[in-house]
Amino acid sequence: MKDLCITTTIHRYQWDELSEQQQTLIEEAKRMTRNSYSPYSHFRVGAAVRLKNGTIVRGSNQENAAYPSGLCAERTALFAANANYPDQPVEALAIACYAEGRFTSEPGAPCAGCRQVMLETEHRYRQPIQVLLYGQDVTYVIDSVDELVPLGFFAEDLPKH
Ligand code: THU
């Protein structure tokens, strides 16, 4: 038996170490938490996506009384970006979470379903998506979605026909 060790690098940034472009995208994600529709979880998530042409597309979590019908902020933003700007690669995605009257101190991490959609987008445009996970105490910066999804499932894994 041999082990396969897959490592992930997460850069830990203080707010003033981030570039202006990164701060702007995070501010958009923070602002979007206000548009969250989360009467069931009371957990407000905002997401903002920056496209290659500089356009910023926003999303927030949208819940539903039939719980599985709701959608996370990241997927809301990414699907809107892909639907409205199908020719524009996604360069960066920022996420912020707000609960109990404040932004979370630690960064919120995208759920596995969102990571899979982020991965598809990254591979679709063949360029890394920088992921910015905001927390009041620290912001995590990840250079690509591949880092967040070891052993990812891709189109190439499907049968050819
Ligand atoms: N949520 C997101 O918007 N993104 C994630 O990656 C994790 C979870 C939302 C879904 C639901 O509306 C609420 O947070 C609680 O799970």
What's this, in brief?
The protein is 24% helix and 22% strand. The protein is of the alpha+beta class and 161 residues long. It has a single domain, classed as 3-Layer(aba) Sandwich (Cytidine Deaminase, domain 2), CATH 3.40.140.
- In this structure, how is the largest beta sheet organized? 7 strands, mixed
CATH architecture descriptor text: 3-Layer(aba) Sandwich
Average pLDDT: 97
Structural class: alpha+beta
Helix and strand succession?
A: EHEEHEEHEE
CATH superfamily: Cytidine Deaminase, domain 2
Number of domains: 1
Q: Name every ligand kind in the structure.
A: tetrahydrodeoxyuridine
Number of distinct helices: 3
Beta strands, count: 7
Dominant shape: globular
The CA-CA distance between the termini, in Å, is: 36 Å
Proportion in helices: 10-25%
Kindly provide the name of the CATH class. Answer: Alpha Beta
Using the coordinates shown, work out and report the CATH topology. Answer: Cytidine Deaminase, domain 2
Radius of gyration: 16 Å
Sheet-strand content, in percent, reads: 15-25%
Give unreliable regions as ranges: none
